[in-house]
């Protein structure tokens, strides 16, 4: 099934996408060749043991073309309940300036579509330094496919020392493309926060309809020396959507990154998060939450790569699995030779709300330095019957007691989100999902 | 090199070679070799058929490479699959055993002369491909316990062997198990009848002596309803520059309310400091808790072998059955270990406990890999896993890869792991109280492993502590 993507690629290259700079065209050619070589992963591969992408591989998805997609009305974007700050809106991966608003961005911050940025001199040069340099497409068929079709995406650049007080919203909506054929979009994000700067970015993935579509996203986050970045990612696509995503971050010395991933939507969702702590004194908080029901399947693979000494990472992933949902978590901590004084903690807790729900958890430690403190923990289980009994003895109904304890389990993760405004928004979304 | 590291590099004490005439089959593997082994063992036709079936399957299988260990290709045609010390057939008493053999086991501290026995331990001594002596057989026979070499059991108790052999680890289970099924030469067999509590610790000591051979032993232990047995295996091999393959299979079957306690002290030759030579210890061990309220407990102390690759597991089929796994794995110099357990919960109220302690020193790479699988029918299953790693020196590695797969929402599963350096503050404190650095380290390491050692039969716990001391000697500074 890889051939038709290669054919689509030929068509993509020959119309419209030809305006791209030569270096990008070269990367695309390499990426499509690599995709053709790798093909879709199968459950025989270790990283895909618990997730079958056969439904994606066996469906003929055609490339969503923004030119043909009917533009959503502004009200439809408003309904997604976002903050009032500056926003970038993408429809099927293409930047739509008409729906976006960039008022209130301070000087030194560039936010806009990649397609336009690549054409201009200075922003093009900036993008070139980072685009497709961090998210490795040589090892991942999905990242390769996204890179092959790279034409547009979100580009956020915060210059050295600049402080972005309001969170910047990046919204990727998928339409059904105005036809019956299922569509695929390859949204792309590049966030570069330079030395000493501060920023918060919220990425939201949503579907406008409830049909079958596939989102294959890649975002690269680069955090410069001493910079502080809060990156939130909310995936709330439709219940029939397929969502595959790669998030890759790289941190320089003394930087801080808070990465929060919330997965609520999609029938099949796979999110690979790879973080590299590439400077001494860097700190990472990796926070994740998946709330699934029906026959949803969500798979999170995280890698925390301690490449330098004196870095700290704290990872917490909680999953609530109801009905026939299946949650997969694979978290790997790598401590490279010489990365002494690493302090790394990882926890994955899964709450099973029904007998049909299933959780697979694989925390992993790979340690090549001796002066380190690394721990991981993982639990799977139902609600604590004694806690339920206690709440009922205080006069709560069984349903209220259950929902209170479930919310408490979720609140553990929400409580780690440092920005109150964004925490409240995620809280509302998750409560709606639990109700 | 820190003084801790300098301390570890102590020579392997069991590396001597016994000069004894051996009957060795030329290297190579084919159906003819299997027929020859079967003939030498005087086996019935069904056994040969089973071996050939395994061999034909093995030919179709590919050697697995998913583990976190590195080694050069193994030439299966360069290994000799049968080596036995030459001696008169049909021994009637211990006096007829070649004194050289007795001396070998004496040197290893294994009491096969009953007079000098360790109180309450019956030993089956296996030298290369054959069992040379089994002690205390009469004492055991009085209670109806069968304890003998497996080749003997095939001849004397075919009904038991046919019923259980391959029922836990099928002949096509994996590449190395298939190879073992085709060519296994000896090993121990134990059957504990209904309601009997085995009065002695059963023990097998494996010794590889001949060069260019592989050891392929097979152990089968059956505990009938309500019985109890504690079994211990130990092993060692001479120092050689080549790598020798050891691919064993161990099968345990516990019926209703039976308990099997299986302890291993593995001390195969680990190779020298540059990583030359040493045993490849690729072993399949599995126990089935078939009956209700049955229990299987694995305890292992892995200090030897160039590469250890094994996952003693429990299939918890019976309701209320219990599986346990206690492990200490030490990798020093260039040793590599990829070990852990598999707990498959099938019955209701099944419980499992995993306690794994990994110690890496020198250039050692130590991996814990384990699976806890709770199937749909395993209502109220419970698992607790704890994996701790200790690092001594900055060239070694410790890795933890647990797999957790829960398909029943009433099950509770917990996993915890930690990795840290040996506590400098603790060493400092102990030194300040007048202990040497070596004593301090050995005390800390023993404390770290205590939870596992306390599961070992008493005599062997002492042995294990001593072994650990030797393995880590020179690694402290």
Q: Any overview of this molecule?
A:
The complex is a heterodimer of chains A (435) and B (477). Chain A folds into 2 domains: 277 residues, no CATH class; 51 residues, no CATH class. In chain A, helix 2 packs antiparallel against helix 7, helix 8 crosses helix 9 and helix 9 runs antiparallel to helix 10. The radius of gyration of chain A is 21 Å and the shape is globular. By secondary structure, chain A is an alpha/beta fold. In chain A, the strands form 2 sheets. In chain A, strands 1, 4, 5, 7, 8, 10, 12, 14, 16, 18 and 20 form an 11-stranded mixed sheet that branches. Chain A has 10 helices and 21 strands. Chain B has 477 residues and is an alpha/beta fold. Chain B has one domain. Helix content of chain B is 23%, strand content 35%. Chain B has 11 helices and 25 strands. In chain B, the strands form 3 sheets. Chain B has a 10-stranded mixed sheet. In chain B, a hairpin with a 2-residue loop joins strand 3 and strand 4. In chain B, helix 6 packs across helix 7. The longest helix of chain B has 17 residues. Classes of the chains: A alpha/beta (435), B alpha/beta (477). Strand 20 of chain A pairs antiparallel with strand 23 of chain B.
Topology overview:
The complex is a heterodimer of chains A (435) and B (477).
Chain A: H1 3-14, H2 22-38, H3 54-57, E1 62-63, H4 74-78, E2 87-91, E3 94-95, E4 109-113, H5 114-119, H6 121-130, H7 141-148, E5 154-158, E6 168-174, E7 183-185, E8 188-193, E9 198-207, E10 213-223, E11 228-236, E12 242-251, E13 256-263, E14 268-277, E15 283-292, E16 297-306, E17 312-321, E18 326-335, E19 343-352, E20 358-367, E21 373-381, H8 385-393, H9 398-414, H10 420-434
Parallel strand pairs in A: 1-7, 2-6, 5-8, 6-9, 7-10, 8-10, 9-11, 10-12, 11-13, 12-14, 13-15, 14-16, 15-17, 16-18, 17-19, 18-20, 19-21
Antiparallel strand pairs in A: 2-3, 4-5
Chain B: H1 3-8, E1 22-24, H2 31-40, H3 45-60, E2 83-85, H4 99-107, E3 121-127, E4 130-134, H5 137-142, E5 146-149, H6 150-156, H7 158-164, H8 175-183, E6 188-192, E7 201-207, E8 218-223, E9 228-236, E10 243-246, E11 249-254, E12 259-266, E13 278-289, E14 295-302, E15 307-310, E16 313-316, E17 322-331, E18 336-339, E19 342-345, E20 351-361, E21 365-374, E22 382-392, E23 397-406, E24 412-421, H9 424-432, H10 437-453, H11 458-472, E25 474-476
